[in-house]
Design a protein that fits this description.
This protein is an all-alpha fold. The protein is about 80% helix and about 5% strand. It has helices spanning about 1-5, 25-50, 60-85, 95-125, 130-135, 140-165, 180-185, 195-225, 230-260, 265-290, 295-310, and strands at about 10-15, 90-95, 175. It starts with a helix and ends with a helix.
């Protein structure tokens, strides 16, 4: 009710990706392929892990959580962006704009926290292998996963509520390809100091804390690897960390560029944001699949089972 009482604007117009006039069809095809690959890759990861009992371990449990988040994260802005490119209908309802802001920050925060949890899982596996099953038991895994979702929902609720409690009574043209806090707040008629301050603190603080915790985990992991006597053990431990490090870099890199450099020109910010929203969710399952023998073996098993069942029919 508070939102309805203060908001006169009932819909927004997304101005889309700047400087792309005449390229809408090409962009539509490219982004559609990326989105389809994201859905297919992450659904395959989910199906593979659930169908193979050997993968019912903490690492793959968290990987399934990551796949769910990637599907959701890419779906926040991509379908609407595709619709805008295809039918040139750039109107988004107030409810749609609120949903995009909430789910973008909810899923983004969840991923940030989940990468931290996955780093802790690696730390437990490499630094305390004999006690690993006790440290990362089913209850702990469930608690860590649910904690990421609960904290993120609280984080996103605060940001979304503060954003749309502001009165929107003037222009309704959002100079962006989806509804995010800063492009939306530019259109508000009231004092935006509170939401801008809270946004910079919250959006800056969460990734910073997560990054420092991940860094601390990896410092301890490197120390543990250097102490290993077996060259094979060091190689295996290091290889296990590579996939996680790759996806962490892909996630925190664009995040750092967007939110720590507000003075970046729109020419750079938009491609970085598109990379984070469209490309990264597609790369995550690829990185984990290509570098993981267990997942590749399970994928072949799933594919082989489907072929065999078709042959049987």
């Amino acid at each position: 009710m508070a939102i309805k009482n203060h908001t006169l604007v009932t819909e927004f117009i997304l101005l889309g990706i700047p400087h792309t006039e005449g390229q809408e069809t090409v962009l539509f095809v490219v982004f559609l392929i990326f989105y389809f690959c994201t859905l297919l890759g992450n659904l395959l990861i989910l199906l593979t892990v659930m169908s193979d009992s050997r993968l019912h371990t903490p690492m793959y449990f968290f990987l399934c959580n990551l796949s769910v988040l990637d599907i959701g994260f890419s779906s926040v802005s991509t379908p609407k962006m595709l619709a805008n490119l295809l039918v040139r209908n750039r109107v988004i309802s107030l409810g749609g704009c609120i949903s995009q802001v909430f789910f973008y920050h909810f899923l983004g925060c969840s991923e940030s926290l989940l990468y931290t949890v996955m780093a802790y899982d690696l730390f437990a596996a490499i630094c305390h292998p004999l006690r690993y099953n006790i440290i990362m038991n089913h209850w702990v895994c469930a608690l860590l996963a649910s904690g990421t979702w609960l904290i993120s929902s609280f984080h996103a609720t605060i940001l979304t509520t503060l954003t749309f409690r502001l009165p929107y009574c003037g222009s309704n043209e959002v100079d962006y390809f989806f509804c995010d806090i800063f492009p939306a707040v530019k259109l508000a008629c009231g004092n935006t100091l509170l939401i801008e301050t809270v946004s910079f603190i919250n959006i800056g603080l969460v990734p910073m804390i997560c990054f420092l915790l991940i860094l601390a985990s990896y410092i301890l992991i490197v120390i543990a690897i250097l102490k290993m006597h077996s060259a094979e053990g060091r190689r295996k431990a290091a290889s296990t960390c590579v996939s996680h490090l790759s996806v962490v870099t892909l996630f925190f890199g664009p995040c750092a560029l967007i939110y720590t450099q507000p003075s970046l020109s729109e020419v750079l910010v938009t491609p970085v944001q598109i990379f984070a929203n469209v490309v990264t969710p597609m790369l995550n399952p690829t990185i984990y699949t290509l570098r993981n023998k267990d997942v590749k073996g399970a994928l072949k098993k799933v594919a082989g089972g489907q072929i065999a069942s078709k042959g049987g029919h």
